[in-house]
Request: fold
Amino acid sequence: MRPQLIRRYFGLVALALSAGAPPALAMDALPASTANAMAQAVSPQAIAEYRRKLKEYQAARAAFEQVAEPYWTAIAEKRRGRNAKRRERQAITLDDYVLTQPPLYDGPKRPVDPEPDDKPRERKPLPVVADFLQAAAAHFQFSPQRPASEVEFKRAYGRVALASGLTREQIVRVYSFETGGTGNHDMQSGLSASRPGSRAISTAVGYNQLLTTNTVSLLAEQGHDIVKALTERAAGLSGPARKAMDHKLAVLKRMVAFTRSVPVQWSEHEKLANTPQGWGVHAMVLDIDVGPLLQTHKLLTSVLFARAKGYTRPLSAAELEMMNLTGDSTGLDMVTMPQAMRERVPTANFFQRGGYERNPVAIRHNTVAKLLAITDERMDVNSTKPGAKELAAAF
Reply:
């Protein structure tokens, strides 16, 4: 299952949380000999000034930690308490949340060391679509069947999503939020043809921005249904089309077996997703037959989870997006909250500390009501963009 916390909210293309490392200092990229020469040229006064500022920074951070650590400990304790009450089917009240806003550090920044390390930092690049395709060919002898046009993929996705019980509004508005209203089926988070030199900031691909771990988890949990759907489709084919579908089914079954080789836990699926075989599995997101099913199941599992927990009211697109991004349990915590509580409960209750402090959107829109409102607002704006209009017309 997806982890029950906000992993990547508002740092991907649509304001999703980015858990990436801070940018390396410019001097880190210099050759060691050049860095050494620059370090030797640093004056004693500059070193003394750096040490003074570092001491000030460390004192300010220590003072901040005296306040911040108890706050986030309370957040974790309240979360455990809510989970226990839900297991006992007890009502959740305002007392089950921390109702004050978290402290935010506003002291001096950590100063830049004028004596850089001799050894430059190495950042392992994230795999991109080309890597997923190469891995699929190498490990599964498979190349996804790509659409003849983007609208073909949108139509396929629309048919599958509607047949599953999702609504047109949910489908289009979630797409609008996740892709900014312009994304293609092979769009990867952070990459854009209009921004030369752009870099991937995650492995998220497609209309609902599936991470490699999402794809592995979906095949492990929903693989049987996806195989069944393709088997039924194969029954109506003949000739070369049937042969191609049979090969795709054989590959899909191998991929499902691979994803089920570990316990059904997000942490275990994440390990598989970070292997070349896991990259190859992720290439299925691009396939015209399997991709729409994976994109649909990513949303459908949240809808079914809510129903299983007794929440029968239709989810708004913004509510579904909360579950899509935060994990079903955490998202349902927000979705089932009455409006009066939404107005008072800080968003910090649904974050790990590191994620919250890196997320300016959650900090600015710091209650559940405000977070849902900004999500709806972005959906409104992005639904008017070309990709969203094309998806809406595909129905």
The CA atoms of residues 140 and 390 lie 33 Å apart. The radius of gyration is 24 Å.
